[in-house]
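Re-running the complex after MR caught last week's input typo. The corrected sequence lines follow. Everything else is unchanged.
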Amino acid sequence: MKARVYVMLKNGVLDPQGEAVRHALGSLGFDGVEGVRQGKVIELDLAEGSTEATVTEMCEKLLANTVIESYRVEMG
Amino acid sequence: MKAAVIVFPGSNCDRDLAVAFEQAGADVTMVWHKDTALPEGIDMVGVPGGFSFGDYLRCGAIAANSPICQSLIKHAERGGYALGVCNGFQILTETGLLPGALRRNAGLKYICRTVGLEVASADTAFTSGYNKGDVVNVPIAHHDGNYFVTDEKLAQLHDEDRIAFTYTENPNGSVANIAGVVSKNRRVLGMMPHPERAADTGHGGIDGVAMFRALMDQFATA
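Corrected-run output:
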């Protein structure tokens, strides 16, 4: 089974990379991009029967830094 | 003073840090990240700069979960001293020994130059060789040195006088110009600038020497 973890900088934490992407889109002529935030997706191949609670624990301990990042887990 | 300097795959300031401790008179042992225990009787653990584990996932995140860091955490919880420089600071925040996190520099560029640092607190074993308000020149060399803490935590750091150094001109976007902070018991310091690279006349500056000397004095009088 698979799990997918989305890690994003928390709202309120400035994302300089997202800002740079927003500027670049503007200079390519894409108007109206009011904000860009860049995160990461982590895909996990897990043994059958693994639980979302375990993946959440992985996020808390390693996959996200909860001081500055939020995460979301999708199972299956 | 008996010091240990941890070496991770990708550390590149480990020998510089060891030399700075040795020149101040410390007895230094290098410790590999896979070791599970620090040598007996260690007073100070140096967590060096570099790019441990290639900065994979987040700077310092993998190193913070390496076997030796469990011993480092126990050492700090026992009241032991630790100094984390650059990647070492990132590692110490990832272990939770120090508050906050280091984000990508606001200007997105890797910055390598000497900066002015104001001694914001001289009330630590690391900074007692300076006076509060002194400005020292120390090099930075980082891509992810943009210090972040919540407003609430920042107020606590101010109240507890835990900000050791601030930048005179903020190079990276750090909250409140913070360049280095200490733990609640004031025995763990993390800082992005490299005092070990300002510790010999050959470096072009010796403003970091006072830190290593002050640490030695701390243990000489203890």
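None of the earlier attempt is carried over here. Chain A touches chain B at residues 9, 13-14, 16-17, 20, 61-63, 65, 67-68 (CB under 8 Å). Residues 2-75 of chain A form a domain with the Mth169; Chain: A , fold (CATH 3.30.1280.10).
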